[in-house]
Design a protein that fits this description.
Distance between the termini: 54 Å
Number of domains: 1
Radius of gyration: 28 Å
Number of strands: 0
Helix content: 55-70%
């Protein structure tokens, strides 16, 4: 379970860090060729790339989740036995009222 939480935390960090880094890079002319663009084009391009980067991080997180092994997660045998027993033998307070049984028979 700790591995799942760790992957979620890392993916969440990247979903914040990557778009902010892209926006910072465009606003401070860290990428080559950005100085040739108008401010409107720079804003539009940086916003578009920031949104795309979040979607890429989400796609990687989904791929990692799909590769998780499913066979290592097994339910507790005692819980399963209690659940099966409760299905076979309902609790006394859940039994039908005698008047309800009579209506069903009619």
């Amino acid at each position: 379970m700790a591995g799942v939480i760790e992957k979620f935390f890392i993916a969440s960090m990247f979903m914040w860090i990557v778009p902010v880094a892209i926006l910072y890079g465009f606003n401070h002319n860290l990428f080559p060729g950005v100085t040739d663009l108008s401010s409107y084009s720079t804003t539009l391009l940086s916003g578009f790339l920031a949104v795309i980067s979040v979607n890429i991080v989400i796609a990687f997180y989904i791929c990692m989740a799909m590769k998780e092994p499913t066979d290592k997660h097994e339910p507790d045998p005692s819980f399963l036995a209690e659940a099966k027993a409760s299905i076979r033998h309902p609790l006394p307070n859940e039994a039908e009222d005698p008047s309800e049984r009579r209506e069903k028979e009619e």
